């Protein structure tokens, strides 16, 4: 592609390409991604169906802003500008409407300098029937769902991090006090059954956090996330920490196994050693999760090249 910047828009005469001056000015100020905003500009009467104007676009824009801490006002605006370098690094894959969300989401992941400019949205020329109307009343819903799917794919860690922390914390809150033995709260007795349930919560929470971490590395266009995890989980420290946790877990589980063998391979009476054995199993599972996730994050760093910005063009 020749040139430094691209300004794009729907070729249906609903966008006025004579008004590209704000886009050019934004590029000159150093922005790589310039979104048009129909809501900050003007919308001609009957240019946008009420369902799109007051429900669909505001809702999906709000969801995206909540998921990615962004401040867009109109993520579906068809008129937008992007630098050629940023577009090439985006490596867009969508085949339909969802390209709009993919472009916005990747601009966030890539930490592109982004701004919005007001644009004027015009109604369809006389005699033209929009493709939305030609495809039937279900098409806007299908388009909206495809956009949501793109958000879920590129931002699935949003649904994993806080639930993961919550489940892990809840599991530990239940497990740790039970290491001292069964306890009763408000007439409800908590023993080894509660310990097993708590371990399941903790393991589920950890699995969600590990998946979120891997997802963040996959969609890391800057290299910052990869570097952060490598500092948090140094290779040698991860290996030795995992080995120590496995050995500690085995030591905690041995007394229960010894009682099991000594009892003729029958489960002994449930006691405090059962709780410690469950905690030991949790340590072993945690050690393997940390070790494997550390290896995967480093492998992804090798396999997925970081798409860095191109150097400034001469002249």
UniProtKB/TrEMBL annotation:
Keyword Membrane included in the entry's annotation: yes
CDD domains: DPM_DPG-synthase_like
Annotated keywords: Membrane, Transmembrane, Transmembrane helix
Coiled-coil spans in chain: none
Chain ranges of the Glycosyltransferase 2-like domain: 2-87
Annotated SUPFAM superfamilies: Nucleotide-diphospho-sugar transferases
Transmembrane intervals: 152-176, 196-219, 239-257, 277-297
Keyword set includes Lipid biosynthesis: no
Pfam families: Glycos_transf_2
Protein name: Glycosyltransferase 2-like domain-containing protein
Organism, scientific name: Rhizobium leguminosarum
